[in-house]
Amino acid sequence: MEAKKVSDSMVEMRELILPNDTNLLGNLLGGRLLHWMDIAGAMAASRHSQSIVATAAIDSVDFKQPVHVGEMIVLKAKLTWVGRTSMEVLVEACSENYLTGETKFTNRAYFIFVSLDENGKPRPVPKLILETDEERREYQEALKRREERLKRRQITSSCSQCEKK
Ligand SMILES: CC(C)(COP(=O)(O)OP(=O)(O)OC[C@H]1O[C@@H](n2cnc3c(N)ncnc32)[C@H](O)[C@@H]1OP(=O)(O)O)[C@@H](O)C(=O)NCCC(=O)NCCS
């Protein structure tokens, strides 16, 4: 498998916030934003791996600013790290008021996607070519985030309600 650059799989996606996307105050629902972030991230991961991907983990998300009905949300997704079958993708969201041109940073989160073969089993992904200092810094920081996630994965591998692993 040929290694790919971060820029080869970057995704930019826009959505117009309609009334059905908002709460009673006319602000974008958090769940809807997470859904779009998941889609943008999955598209970047699928472009890199040229495969179907599953979301394995999402790091904590803070909602910094409300996004209002009638505004646009701009989502940018890029790979920050790849393992054997998994990929970390940074997704950033900004809102844009197209009438005034004002933009506001809304939130960012790291997603882990796993590349799947035709039987739904994890399959290897291409290596990532790092070209800029920022990409190299992100990659180093991703290694620490991965350690934390793998610890968390071990701790949360059973359910007290269904008593199943
Ligand atoms: C994600 C999934 C395919 C992993 O399958 P698995 O049989 O557990 O596979 P593995 O243990 O070999 O893990 C595969 C890779 O994912 C990584 N991974 C899996 N779960 C992870 C987690 N919670 N956090 C970080 N990495 C994770 C592993 O470290 C491994 O990475 P590597 O190959 O780069 O080293 C499987 O758990 C699954 O199908 N989960 C449900 C996905 C889903 O439905 N998502 C939608 C939201 S509900």
Summarize the topology.
Blueprint: E1 4-5, E2 11-16, H1 30-49, E3 52-58, E4 72-82, E5 86-96, E6 103-116, E7 128-129, H2 133-155
Parallel strand pairs: 1-7
Antiparallel strand pairs: 2-4, 3-6, 4-5, 5-6
Bound molecules: coenzyme A.
Main β-sheet, spatial strand arrangement: 2-4-5-6-3
Structural class: alpha+beta
Number of beta-strand segments: 7
CATH classification class: Alpha Beta
Relevant CATH superfamily: Hotdog Thioesterase
Tally of alpha and pi helices: 2
* Ligand set: coenzyme A
**What is the name of the CATH topology?**
Thiol Ester Dehydrase, Chain A
Radius of gyration of CA atoms, rounded to a whole number:
17 Å
Can you tell me the number of structural domains?
A: 1
Tell me about the biggest sheet? 5 strands, antiparallel
Contiguous runs where pLDDT drops below 50 for at least 5 residues: none
Strand content: 25-35%
Mean pLDDT: 95
General shape: globular
What is the architecture at the second tier of CATH? Answer: Roll
Helix content: 25-40%
- Strand/helix succession: EEHEEEEEH
Alpha carbon gap, first and last residue: 34 Å
Task: Give an account of the 3D structure.
The chain has helices at 30-49, 133-155, and strands at residues 4-5, 11-16, 52-58, 72-82, 86-96, 103-116, 128-129. It is α+β, with helices and mostly antiparallel strands and 165 residues long. The chain has one domain: Hotdog Thioesterase (Thiol Ester Dehydrase, Chain A, Roll). The chain is globular. The chain binds coenzyme A (COA). Coenzyme A binds next to β3, β6 and α2. Coenzyme A binds at residues 54-57, 83-86, 112, 114, 122, 149, 153.
